Every structure is written in structure tokens, then in C-alpha cells.
UniProtKB/TrEMBL annotation:
Name of the protein described by the UniProt record: Arginine repressor
The species this protein was found in: Lucifera butyrica
Entry function: Regulates arginine biosynthesis genes.
One Pfam family from the record: Arg_repressor_C
GO cellular component, one term: cytoplasm
Localization annotation: Cytoplasm
Length: 151
């Protein structure tokens, strides 16, 4: 339940501008997730969410590592099309990609500086990502899927 809730929190923050815990609680409830403010506060701390300046002069929550790794629109489309599947095994995330694309995908992940990733290894059509904690690989897979869909 906790992992599902935290993944949902990250997805909501990726989709919409959330500036307060009250707004996030309301968004979670709209998604069918009833959570207390105390639990939400712990989740925000565990996810290391922070507030960043928004374009309108206000503030919004942001997930560390969500910053754009500086890809051009063309590179973004290529990466999106290259990823075929993401499979989680313990603290490992295995990403299957089109042949010859593993280095490009691993480079994209490395340039994003996700704090929960220890490192990545690229072959020809597979990227192995080592995540700091068991359970973190599931969150990382969900986060990458969200990023890939947004591109």
C-alpha cells in the first residue's frame, strides 16, 4: 500500500502543479486514496520531495531527479521509442530496449541524476539499473514510465 501510494504521489506531482499538502491530499482522494495528513507528511519526507519555484511565482512540489537531463526534443522521442519494457527484480531494474540503444538510454538515466540510483550498466539491448533499496526499483520503474509517457 505504501509503495502504491508513494508512486501515486509522484505521478500526481508529475502531472499537475501541487503547491500545498492540502492540494495533494485532495488530489489523492480524487484518485481514491484516503490518507491522513501525518501519513502524507511522512511520505513527502521519505520521497525527499521539496518545493521549487514555479513559473507563476508560486511554489510547487518536485521530485528529486525529475529535472530535465537536457535532451533535445528529437533525443526525447528516440529514447521514448527505444524503451520496450521495464522489469523489476529486487533492487534491480532491467530495461529492455531496441538493439544498439542501451548506451543512449543508460546515458539519459545517468544524466538525470536520480538520487536513488547507484549506477547503470548498458549492453546492446539491455540496461541494468541498480537501485539503493529493495522496493525502490518499483518506484523507479514507475517514475521512468511516467517520464517516458510525458515525453
Amino acid at each position: 500500500m505504501k509503495t502504491k501510494r508513494q508512486v501515486l504521489i509522484e505521478q500526481i506531482i508529475a502531472r499537475q502543479r501541487i503547491g500545498t499538502q492540502k492540494e495533494l491530499l485532495a488530489a489523492l482522494r480524487r484518485e481514491g486514496m484516503d490518507v491522513t495528513q501525518a501519513t502524507l507528511s511522512r511520505d513527502l519526507w521519505e520521497l525527499r520531495l521539496s518545493k521549487v519555484a514555479a513559473a507563476d511565482g508560486g511554489y510547487r512540489y518536485a521530485v528529486p531527479g525529475r529535472q530535465d537531463p537536457g535532451l533535445t526534443p528529437r533525443e526525447q522521442r528516440v529514447i521514448q521509442k527505444a524503451v520496450l519494457s521495464l522489469v523489476v527484480s529486487g533492487a534491480l531494474l532491467v530495461i529492455h530496449v531496441l538493439p544498439g540503444m542501451a548506451r543512449a538510454v543508460a546515458r539519459w538515466i545517468d544524466r538525470a541524476h536520480f538520487p536513488e540510483i547507484l549506477g547503470s550498466v548498458a549492453g546492446n539491448d539491455t540496461v541494468l539499473v541498480v537501485v539503493k533499496a529493495t522496493g525502490g526499483a518499483e518506484r523507479m520503474a514507475a517514475r521512468l514510465e511516467t517520464l517516458l509517457k510525458a515525453r
